[in-house]
TrEMBL record:
Residues 62-167 form the PurM-like N-terminal domain. The keyword Transmembrane helix does not apply. This is Phosphoribosylformylglycinamidine cyclo-ligase. It catalyses: 2-formamido-N(1)-(5-O-phospho-beta-D-ribosyl)acetamidine + ATP = 5-amino-1-(5-phospho-beta-D-ribosyl)imidazole + ADP + phosphate + H(+). It is found in: Cytoplasm. Residues 179-342 form the PurM-like C-terminal domain. It is an enzyme of class 6 (ligase). GO terms for molecular function: ATP binding; phosphoribosylamine-glycine ligase activity; phosphoribosylformylglycinamidine cyclo-ligase activity. It comes from Streptomyces zhaozhouensis. The gene is purM. GO terms for cellular component: cytosol. Belongs to the AIR synthase family. Keywords: ATP-binding, Cytoplasm, Ligase, Nucleotide-binding, Purine biosynthesis. One of its GO terms (biological process) is 'de novo' IMP biosynthetic process.
C-alpha cells in the first residue's frame, strides 16, 4: 500500500529534540551555580552524583526525602510570561518539608514537563530552581525536561522536584519532643507562597474579573506581581536555629493551613493554643476574603495567612531564637503555647482576632 503522506518523524509529532538540546546548553550556567563540595560531575549524565562519604561524620545518619510541585501558581507565570520565579517556589516547597524533621537538604532533582520546548523558557525555569537551591544550601544534581505535545498546550508546563537530606538520628525533630509549656514561634510568610492558588484565581481572576496587570492599592503593586511573589525558603534559618538553641519541632505551613500543619507535629496529650492577635496577615489575605466573601475558617484551612513556618521551642530558647531570626532577616514572633490536653490532643486551635 502506498500513499503520498510524508514519512512520520518525532518532529512532526510535536517533539523538537534540537530545542531540548538548546535548553540544556542555556541552563548549564545556572546549574553550575547550584552545587556543593560533594557534587560529582556535571549536567548531562544519566544520573546525578553526590559524594556520600560526607555522611561518615554522622554517627547514625537518617536520609530524609521529599517531593512536591508548585500547583496552579504556574498558570500565573504562564499568563505573565515570567518563568524565573516559580522554580524558587518549587525548591521552597520541597526543602522546607525536609527541614521540619531537622534534616539538612543535600541535593535536589527537578522535572519540567512542557507542551512545547521554548529553550529560553525552560532555562528560565531551571534558573529559578538553581537560585532556590543556592538559597536552600543544597545542590541541583540533575533533572529532566519532557515535551508532551497533545497532553499540554504549547504555552503550558508543570514542574516538580524531589530532594534528599540528612539528619543525625538522635537529633530527629518531631512530636515525641513536644511538651506542655513549650512555646510556638511563627516565622512570617513572604505572601501566598504556593498553596491555595485555585481559590485565589477563582476569586480574583474569575469571579471578580481582575486582570493581572491591575494595580491594587492594598498591595502597592500589580496583582500579578503579588501573586508571583516567591515562597520564602526557611531551610537555612531553621538549621541555624537547631545549631544555636534547643528546638523540639517545626511545621511547614502549606496546604491545610496553620492549625492542621502544626497539628501534624503534636503528640497526643497536648494541644497548641494560638493567638490571632499576635500578627496581622498581609493585605492579600484580606483582599481574597473580602472580594470572594470567603469565610475565615475557609481562608485559614486553605491559605497560610501570613505564617510560613513555625518552631516549637522550650521557653528558655524563645528569646535567643527570635534574636537569631531577626539577625537573619526573618520576621518572627511568639504565636502561642503548648498546653496539656486530656481530650482533643494533638491539635492546634486559634483564638482571638487579628489586629484591625
Amino acid at each position: 500500500m502506498t500513499t503520498n503522506v510524508p514519512g512520520a518523524s518525532y518532529a512532526a509529532a510535536g517533539v523538537d529534540i534540537e530545542a531540548g538540546e538548546t535548553a540544556v546548553r542555556l541552563m548549564k550556567e545556572w546549574v553550575a551555580k547550584a552545587q556543593r563540595p560533594e557534587s560529582v560531575g556535571g549536567l548531562g549524565g544519566f544520573a546525578g552524583l553526590f559524594d556520600a562519604s560526607a555522611l561518615t561524620r554522622y554517627r547514625r545518619p537518617l536520609l530524609a526525602s521529599a517531593t512536591d510541585g508548585v500547583g496552579t501558581k504556574v498558570a500565573i507565570a504562564q499568563r505573565l510570561d515570567i518563568h524565573d520565579t516559580v522554580g524558587r517556589d518549587l525548591v521552597a516547597m520541597v526543602v522546607d518539608d525536609l527541614v521540619v524533621c531537622g534534616a539538612e537538604p543535600l541535593f535536589m532533582t527537578d522535572y519540567v514537563c512542557v507542551g512545547k520546548v521554548y529553550p529560553e523558557r525552560v532555562a528560565a525555569l531551571v534558573k529559578g530552581i538553581a537560585e532556590g537551591c543556592v538559597l536552600a544550601g543544597c545542590a541541583l544534581v540533575g533533572g529532566e525536561t519532557a515535551e508532551h505535545p497533545g497532553l499540554l498546550g504549547p504555552e503550558e508546563y508543570d514542574i516538580a522536584g524531589a530532594a534528599t537530606g540528612v539528619v543525625e538520628a538522635d537529633a530527629l525533630l518531631g512530636a515525641d519532643r513536644v511538651r506542655p509549656g513549650d512555646v510556638v514561634v511563627a516565622m512570617a510568610a513572604s505572601g501566598l507562597h504556593s498553596n491555595g492558588y485555585s481559590l485565589v484565581r477563582h476569586v480574583l481572576l474569575h469571579q471578580a474579573g481582575w486582570g493581572l496587570e491591575r494595580e491594587v492599592p492594598e498591595f502597592g503593586r500589580t496583582l500579578g506581581e503579588e501573586l508571583l511573589e516567591p515562597t520564602r525558603i526557611y531551610s537555612l534559618d531553621c538549621l541555624a536555629l537547631t545549631r544555636t538553641v534547643e528546638v523540639h519541632a517545626f511545621a511547614h505551613v502549606t496546604g491545610g493551613g496553620l492549625a492542621n500543619n502544626l497539628g501534624r507535629v503534636l503528640p497526643e496529650g497536648v494541644r497548641a493554643v494560638l493567638d490571632r492577635s499576635t500578627w496581622r496577615p498581609a493585605p492579600v489575605f484580606d483582599v481574597v476574603g473580602a472580594v470572594g466573601r470567603v469565610a475565615r475558617e475557609e481562608l485559614e484551612r486553605t491559605l497560610n495567612m501570613g505564617v510560613g513556618m513555625v518552631a516549637v521551642l522550650p521557653r528558655e530558647s524563645v528569646d535567643p531564637a527570635l534574636a537569631l531570626l531577626g539577625e537573619r532577616g526573618v520576621p518572627s514572633w511568639v504565636l502561642g503555647e503548648i498546653v496539656a490536653a486530656e481530650t482533643d490532643g494533638g491539635t492546634a486551635t486559634l483564638s482571638g482576632n487579628h489586629p484591625g
